Fold this protein.
Amino acid sequence: MYETNRRFITHLDLDTFFVSVERLKNSKFVGIPLIVGGLGDRGVVASCSYEARKFGVHSAMPMKLARRLCPHATVVRGDMERYSNYSRQVAEVIRGQVPVMEKASIDEFYLDLTGMDRFFGCSKFVAELKAKVKKETGLPISYALASNKLVSKVGTDDAKPDGQAEIEFGGEKGYLAPKPIERMPGIGQKTSVLLRSMGVRTIKVLSEIPPPMMQTLLGKNGVELSRRANGIDDTPVVPYSEQKSISTEETFGQDTIDISFLRGELVKMTESVAFQLRQQGKLCGCVTVKLRYANFDTVSKQLVIPYTASDDILLAKAQELFHKLYEKRMLVRLLGIRVSHLVHGQQQIDLFDDTVESVRLYQAMDLIRNRYGESAVRRAVSAPLPSVTKTHDAAQLQNMV
């Protein structure tokens, strides 16, 4: 008898994505320790091969330390444009085969196959989809099939590299039970330290803590962690849409032709949307600039870009679009910017030119913005002269970096 309350959720993850793309470009990289990131010692590791991981190298590690741990590794500078293109190729392959797909990040996808098992087996379908991705893009991909997103994601980690897993309906809690608490999505370093100080080391022990106690410890997040530790996750697969966006625009009180003013406003708006991206843990793959002239003619241009949440990259693209748009030299009534093609991801994955210090600078700037508001830290071109308080904040920022 068909179980109407059962879901079939698949999580797919491209294995060491950046490394795999580099190996498609150069077969000499296959089978050797490979690190992708900034080339200088002050750079950051964006991705590394399993051969390099054996020596303790991992993502977000300072490149200097990675070279020390694995001195014989080959280091290549990342190419976010190429990675973005491959990510879109994979998304198109998957989207053409399934009813509901969520693009969770540049290299992760969730599928809701509920109901498809009535017509043909989900296990066979996903296995064939995995083979199709490999055939059409050349990229290895791992997956896990389960009843919810949480268990399927944990299962994919177990299936890597280039593997597959299936967690039976009803076996979710038992599957998670022996795993260390750090394997549970949603448990960060601070929560891990707190739980381990209480003797909670496995998901099984975590699942046995009464929800009221978890709420006392961690608030609402504690109750949710208790549910998830028991294998319960009702989070839906959100259909992927290229229309998701973050935007801001301003209609000026007086029409203007002041190019310096317009550039300053564009910088301020771009910083704002970039900050919102990072706050939401997202990257964008497209930027659009919009102009409305005094006669109400409205024009816009967009540019598909490598996935990013970097102020510097978005500013360069926004300014490029602005100069292409602003040809009439007429009074401007409105200026706006929109970022779209959003996926989940961390800012530093595309900062191959950045150093550890510059990544920390972004983090420190965002910390001050969270504390004092978005306008607390701006580029000089978009901000008035700083007050004594803001100068003090800037000094604190410099100390933090």
About this structure: The chain has three domains: 1-168, 174-229, 245-400.
